Amino acid sequence: MSLRLGDIAPDFQADTTQGTIRFHEWMGDGWAILFSHPKDFTPVCTTELGYMAKLSSEFEKRNCKVLGLSVDPVENHLKWKVDIEETQNYPVNYPMIGDSTLAIAKLYDMLPADEPGTSEGRTAATNHTVRTVFVVGPDKKIKLHLTYPMTTGRNFNEILRVLDSMQLTAAHKVATPVNWENGDDVIIVPAVSDAEAKEKYPNGWKTVKPYLRIVAQPGN
Ligand code: BEZ
Predict the structure, then answer these.
(1) What residues sit in the active site (predicted)?
(2) 39 CB under 6 A from ligand 1?
(3) Which of 45, 66, 69, 142 is catalytic?
């Protein structure tokens, strides 16, 4: 059965470009992004991993570690990192897992479906990971799960946006509306009564409907 939001992210030990890590221990008490790409030395993946490297200081500011994964061996990741920095202008300073046995890919359901009509199991086309992203919270529970098509590079700004939203929710009991960006107004969650809201927001809020109460982003 596949992993669901709210499940504990399975712990594992892995060989990475920065040595052996145990996932939960490596996370410490912060957030983590575990993301897989299909193959080293491929064009879309090169742009994706370079962009993740560009954003890594933003994730660090948010106490969120980044961990890449593919079924390529660590030696290949180390060679490919040079190309990524050369072409995308940012060094890949987060660890990349070499999941050659597919153990973690299977644990996190990151593999595509087997091709119909093949009885011998996985083929060259199906034994690589699809573009998957997991965001894991400090409680080690899965907070976000995305799967993207092979030929579409992901929008990692969106992962940063969702992380900002989730961290605001954790700190202030607010939710964020459609297309929200950091700094925009937020929504007071229904679990917060008007009496509690009055204490939290003495300057008031806008009641569009009793269930839709808009307030300036706390701490902004
Ligand atoms: C790419 O990153 O460009 C790619 C990887 C695997 C299959 C197709 C494209």
Answers:
(1) 45 (cysteine sulfenic acid (-soh) intermediate)
(2) yes
(3) 45
Q: Are residues 111 and 39 in the same domain?
A: yes
- As given in the structure block, the two tokens for residue 204 are 């008031």
Q: How confident is the model at residue 127 (pLDDT cuts 50, 70, 90)?
A: confident
Give CA torsion, residues 155, 30, 3, 78, to 10 deg.
60
The Cα–Cα gap between 166 and 103 comes to: 29
pLDDT digits (tens, 9 = 90+) for 73-102: 999 999 999 999 999 999 999 999 999 999
Q: Which of 42, 80, 130 to mutate to test the pocket of ligand 1 (most atoms within 8 A of CB)?
A: 42
pLDDT of residue 117: 66
| Whole-number average pLDDT of the chain | 95
Atom of ligand 1 nearest to the CA of 45: 2
What is the rounded average pLDDT of the residues 182-205?
Answer: 95
Question: Can you spell out the DSSP letters for 187-207?
Answer: EE-TTS-HHHHHHH-TT--EE
pTM, full prediction: 0.94
- Is residue 45 annotated as a catalytic residue, yes or no? yes
Q: Which residues pair with 92 in a beta bridge?
A: none
Q: Which atom of ligand 1 is nearest to the CA of 43?
A: 3
Average pLDDT value for residue range 101-118: 88
> In the listed set 105, 122, 153, which residue is the last one of a domain according to the structure?
153
Count Cα atoms within 13 angstroms, Cβ side, for 45: 23
Domain boundary among 102, 126, 153: 153
| Domain boundaries, position 210 | 172-215
CATH number for the domain harbouring residue 208: 3.30.1020.10
Is 2 a domain residue?
no
What separation in Å is there between the alpha carbon of 108 and the centre of ligand 1? 20
